[in-house]
Structure formats: C-alpha cells, structure tokens
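pinging the channel bc i need a second pair of eyes. not urgent but kinda urgent?? the chain im working w is below, pasted from the shared doc
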Amino acid sequence: MILLGVTNEDLVKLEPVLASSPNFKTPNLKLSVYKNRRGSYKGIYLWCDADLGTCRIQPQFCTTWHHELVSIEDIKVIVEEEEAPWESKRKKDSKG
C-alpha cells in the first residue's frame, strides 16, 4: 500500500463518482492497494478524507485504478489495547 496525494487529474476523473452520491466528500488522500495477499481487494484506490491536523483518515469510497467505483464492505476494526509489558513492570517497581 502507498499513500498518495490527490491530483487535479484525479479529481477530474472522479467527477462522475463524486456526482453519484451526495455522501461522498472530495478526497484529499488516496491509498493505493497494489498487493493484498489472501484478500479480494488489489489494484484499487481507497479515496479518503484526511484531517492532517489530527492524523485521522475517513475512507470515502473505493475505485479501480481506472476510476470505476467498487463496492466494498464497511468493516470496523476494533483494537483492544493491552498494557505493555514495560508498563506493568514500571508500576510494580514504583510500588515496591
């Protein structure tokens, strides 16, 4: 995967896609997926709205490399963070 900026040429090619749904924001970042082992998505762009001030990225839609809309499943990944081993050791040391 490679993160790329969105060019003016991209925006021109995306006009039909953006017009197809009022929910799509104009992207300012694209994620190029060129290799995806054991995955069904490869050779695609994931177009995103990135807030560079907070480093948050909101995916908007997915297209082929030829800017044809691809339907994708909306999957949320939830990560439960565990305490790092060095954190628990630090707590024990400060109590002792």
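so The two ends are 47 Å apart (CA to CA). and The first strand starts at residue 2 and ends at 5. — does that match what u expected or am i reading it wrong
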